[in-house]
């Protein structure tokens, strides 16, 4: 499956790159003006600051370009990253069946496998289901599979719960039973799943466009923000979408967001 890395312009296809390149002057002028406004307004002391934020005269043209790139993104796939603690059996399921969306039924099926293998008891499963955000936030959580648009270092604070405890947000985030939570920290291994995600099954084409523009403009020194974002798919993905699964102990896992992937430059 063809995909692009939002942080690496060398992976952009010819059509996407040509649109960006044709608008280099406007893109760079917009970011240069934003930097000037930041220095003169946001960083200025209260005594030197203008009464109103200065206008960026390139905004309208820049938004038109962003709209063009957003439209192009609708037919493209990007490499994304799912951070979770998974068992070997769950890894095999991903590789054979692909990605299923998170639902109360899928959670029950995952829990049932842990019971059948003797890892959890029926009582512990009931406690997890009772504490699951599906009980109170089902409409917001059901039917999604979450990822990040850029690789994160495994020591990133936002990954502590995801990599530290089996089950992810829908199983362990609201759990107050420390003994049971300790047990979840021993199930499976921390993993980072690399996935080629068709943006057509997400709601993040505009965010992807912003990230692509940010990467392109970085060639000219603008901006420092990579426009990283969280994203989710709303349809299952086939096993062919799984690019690689990095597990704790793998060199690629340990270097995630630092020197791996090779095309990714760590830092801001």
Structural notes for this entry:
The protein has twelve helices and five strands. It is an alpha+beta fold. It starts with 13 loop residues before the first helix and ends in a 14-residue tail after the last helix. 31% of the residues are buried.
Strand order of the largest sheet: 1-3-5
The secondary-structure class comes to alpha+beta
Strand content: 5-15%
N-C termini distance: 29 Å
The gross shape turns out to be: elongated
Mean pLDDT metric: 93
Helix content: 40-55%
Q: Short description, anyone?
A:
It is built from twelve helices and five strands. By secondary structure, it is of the alpha+beta class. The chain has a three-stranded antiparallel β-sheet.
